[in-house]
User: Fold these one by one.
Assistant:
Number 1:
Amino acid sequence: HERLAGEGRQWAYTTVLTFLTRLEAKGYVASEKSGVAHVFRPLVSRDNLLRQKLVNLATELCDGTASPLVRALVEGQRFSADEINQFRRLLDELESPAAADQKRRKRRNNEDRR
């Protein structure tokens, strides 16, 4: 409740408690009662939750194929050079190890020439 208030959200304590109780019922958080306060802790990381939701979305909208969803997410977005390099490394890792190694060596050679 305090964290939400610090972010400028004006939710009543009972609203926050209801929201967290629903998340607990879905298995996303766990709680302990500490005195008069409820203490909640996450059971699922943000990355795992995002991954799970995107898989569900791809299943629902794209017949289980992620590529149209990924394209829709990145088209028209502006990414920093660092983010683009991270994407390239991830794509390299997803390719066969030999092809990924070859591309990495080629990219390093090109970067060294600059």
Note: The helical segments are 2-6, 13-25, 46-62, 67-74, 81-94, 97-113.
Number 2:
Amino acid sequence: MSRQKPWKFVLLGVVGVVAVAAYHLLSRPSLDRYEAIELGAAPPGPDLRVTFLGVSTLLFRDATAAVLVDGFFTRPAALQTWRGTIGPDSDRITAGLALGGIHELDAVVTAHSHYDHAMDAPEVAKRTGAMLVGSPSTANIAKGWGLDDAHVHVVHGVDTLRFGDLKVTLVPSMHFPHGIAMGEITAPLVPPAAATDYKEGGSFSILIERAGRSVLVQSSAGYVTGALAGRHADVVYLGVGLLGEKDGDYREAYWRQVVSAVGARRVVPIHWDDFTRALDEPLLPIVHALDDLDVSMSFVMARAATEHVEVRWPVLGVAADPFAGL
């Protein structure tokens, strides 16, 4: 009887290890554990409603005004994003606006100028008659798209604007420190362009106040020490993308400088979904190879419990009362 050559067993073992590793890296955390804490739909009414539309695109609307944070709907596929050029997709923008029930807006406020926040914003502003609010880099995205300067408000430092009963304050912040596509956009950016051409251009914490209550949008898991001191928000829509890749000290500092700093009583995680998937597909977390939502959320849940902060989960396309039950 012939004997099996040892190298065959070694090869089989290597293939098995590679297959298991690949499966893990390309798998995704489950969202089942968050069904019990979903922020459900609120009945129609004149008070503030917030609709989550993926990443950190959030519609704030009451009887007097409608303000959209970011307005990113194109969500180009991964291969196109990594190896080609991207630009606003008209059909996907139409579908995204329909999902949010958006016809007219007072403002589109961009948290920073990466493509997953600002690429679609000029077209959304053009279609809805909105003022586009953002950094000088966002203004150059608008110029490249042909949006009239009269419909662009450039933010320098802390800036406060009012739209109906909504008071919107932008406070300079810091992006999550991943080092990709940082810097400024210094000339009009005409798409299609590489994803990395959409440089960060400075980030903002966005505070939205109405009738004595307030919501903070922290789209990226970065912070500036002391930047939010003295400000208050009942609810924080908290960016958790890539937070699982940082160490415990960073996560503690992020929570302290954002959530604790404003005395929040509720946190709603955002920027956890894989934005290379279209909005007509179910929202899924980013794959383990790039992030670990389970690590991020385990931290958020544990930290929230120690400060008696409630954690609620956003549901795509659902207009929710951010203060319900508080």
Note: Confidence is low (pLDDT under 50) at residues 11-25.
Number 3:
Amino acid sequence: SIQFIVFCVIVIPAYFVFPHRHRWGLLLLASLFFYLVFPPSFLFIIGAIILFDVFTGNLIEHSSGRLRKTFLVIGILVNIMLLLFYKYFNFINENIRNVFSLFDASYPVPYISILVPVGLSFITFQSISYKIELYRKHIPAERHPGIYALYLLFFPKVIAGPIERPQHLIPQFREKHEFDFALFKAGLMQVMFGFIKKVVIADRIALVVDPVFKNIDGHNGMELLIAAILYSFQIYCDFSGYTDIALGVAKIMGFRLTDNFNKPYFAKSISEFWRSWHITLSLWLRDYVFLPLAYALSRRWKKERYFFVKTEKWIYYSATIVTFLIIGLWHGAAWHYVLWGGLFAVYLCFSLATSRDRKAFYKRTRISKFPQLFSITKILTTFMLVTFAWIFFRADSMEDALYVLFKISSLSFSEPVHFSLNAAEMVFTLLLIVLLVIKEWFFFIIGTGNTFRWSMLMALSVLVCYFFGVFNQVQFIYFQF
């Protein structure tokens, strides 16, 4: 928005003008002001989390043995209970009511209208990360409430990440950052490509996808299939566009945030996809859910095999299923999100279970003798599996997702195709996607060493956004999470 651009034009120069010892205060005030765009009452909740974390962190650091672990568990449980109340109370309540109704029993707890604080999921995960890293003695307790508040509320990433580790971000608030023209060029270029991804590509695709998924009864299987494929690009450009803007703004000021994307649609397997999509969430769940769970199971399951399957495979299956069900539920309090996460668990478990058979198949067919064809085949297969899963993510309910799949499965190639955009606009939209794919493949990182070339690219980017952008205030998809 224009307001965000004006906000950055004021805050970034002020950051370099302010004395180093006061810069954290400026950034915190700017982040609080940024967050106040949303309901001010949210700040009281976030403020309570900050004070609780600082207090709990000191208790964890100054205790040992069982008491230290008790403080950690209490700290994490408070975070989880707060998230469960705001984000999942009505979901849990509704499912309990459905169980009661099966037995014709009355259930007295009513539906409660709850406004979820913006960015609560991201803030909660960072809060938990701080306490776990402190418990593992990877970091000291942060005794400066303002610095810790900045760790949670730093305005470029507060709404939709990336989910930063405390040892990576907190020390940067104490570093003295001088204005660096090279970082300015690189950061501004990243911001501009983020804007292009969002307002030129994602929001243009939304003009096709959103009307289709809002009226699935009024569209045939072919239209739904095209909309599902386009949604894969919409959500990527929308979310990675946000990330580019966040990382670019931070980079201009000298901060190094963690990248969340690394060409995910060029992944050759589902595991590779999750190593390059929403990277900070994947790493968070790997380090704090998957690996601890796998370790705990390995200590309890002593036999070499269970039901003729090696124990390490059962451990992988169990930890993977739990991790990806959490990923699904983290994205939304609805069963279609849970199934979306569950699908990826099935993909990964199936991949491990069939690993030996697939290698034998590749050897028999000699497809690996043609490495380029083999790579393209794996990329397309992975993309199709991911797109299939995105249908459950995009649909408004489980019933809608299943209905979309039913219509796609019965499509006819002779069906007429009609969208809200005319033929010329559709061709232009597809051209933008092709150009995006080419840019991602050949020029994933744009060099900014040559100032003249950078200036030309910046001018071109501004013109592209101005003339081809869709400025209809479409909110970033991940703002809802």
Note: DSSP finds 18 helices and two strands in the chain.
